[in-house]
Amino acid sequence: MKAVKITDGIYCLPVNLESYQLFEGMWPMPNGISINSYIVQGDKTAIIDLVEDTDGKPAELEAEIHSIPLDQKNIDYMIINHMEPDHTSWLPEFYRKNPQLQFYLTGKAAGLLKSFCGIEENVHIVKDGDTLDLGQGKVLSFHETPNIHWPETMMTFEQSSGTLFSCDAFGSYGKLERVFFDDRLSTEQHTFFSNEALRYYANIVASFSTFVTRGIEKLSALDIKVIAPSHGIVWRENPKQIIDSYARFAEYMNGPAEAEVTVIWSSMYGNTEKLVSNIVQGVRKEGLPVHVHRVPDEHVGILLASAWRSAGLILGMPTYEYEMFPPMAWVLDMFRRKKVLNKKVLRFGSAGWSGGAQRELDKLTEKLKWEFIDPIEWMGAPGEHELDLALSQGQALARQVKDFCSK
Ligand code: FEO
């Protein structure tokens, strides 16, 4: 791939990770992801963020640098917005090839540069609002945005073009192949990247939502004309769209999220499964969208987006050896870690021979501010009574969600 010109002297250099790879070593990426570096050229040249040292990806970035055309030995400044290794694991080798590089980063990032990469020299620590003049009108300013995504994170703003290099913020999954800008996307592609942004947010950023809200407030002081994130498309026609999307994703934490219901169910021998269709029917009677996911067939990284977006959750799980069915325990533990808060919730499931799933669920969710309606639980196989309850409780949960979302 060639570098993509954003405006005079500013280039996006996307490198795609493939769908068979796992992001952060755990998240499935059915549509891959791009890792974007940027070049800003004045009299001096800066590169903003790098790429993960995996699967030949650094060679792809080098080829894109050469395509500008630019000799990487002529890069003067390395701006490090964020030290997570998807952007920095190639940094030691890049520095070895370009020992003249001067690093610009926050104080916390400098500590991580030492611990992750063993680099302590040529380091310039920047503070909020500091600037770096590249010449020819290109001026970079630095803005600390802690915890979007790590504590050391900052964003870089090129003042003459109004381009915000936002690193993880405003990013999405999804490879960049033929389209790189929001104004070049078809309606279908917009929907694709919108869904990929939500799933990326739910997987990577969700637990830092308070900081996202705070960061967006702080960025409102900047005259942003272009959002250039480190993952996903560049927003140059309507940057407000992705800013507003992220603001809304962050609000989901405090609730209410959207008036939708996500059903996540698991079953050992089909006894818990028998209630699923009646539950879904009950929700639909109230006219709400319902998203159904089976565990463990579907990875928590996929269903997390749906759960994050929905104001209502319905969880189906049998008891397994006096506790929750283990694949669901993993999902619930991930919800706890990702702060999936403030939901209306219904649980259903076979108690097997003993019960115990409810006890573990109560423990795992005690800090999530979930409001439960009466569960549906039975010993062994469900009967007509439970099937009728599935319909009525699905409907009852949907009504609760509607009330919650109308306030
Ligand atoms: Fe794309 Fe938090 O790294």
From TrEMBL:
SMART domains tied to this protein = Lactamase_B
The record ties this protein, via Gene3D superfamilies, to: 3.40.50.360, Ribonuclease Z/Hydroxyacylglutathione hydrolase-like (3.60.15.10)
Write one Pfam family the protein is assigned to. Flavodoxin_1
InterPro entries listed in its UniProt record: Flavodoxin/NO_synth, Flavoprotein-like_sf, Metallo-B-lactamas, ODP_dom, RibonucZ/Hydroxyglut_hydro, Rubredoxin-O_OxRdtase
* Residue ranges of domain Flavodoxin-like in the record: 261-407
GO terms (molecular function) for this protein are: electron transfer activity; FMN binding; metal ion binding; oxidoreductase activity
Identify the stretch annotated as signal peptide in this record.
none
Q: Which family does it belong to?
A: In the N-terminal section; belongs to the zinc metallo-hydrolase group 3 family.
What protein name does the entry list?
Flavorubredoxin
* Native organism: Desulfuromusa kysingii
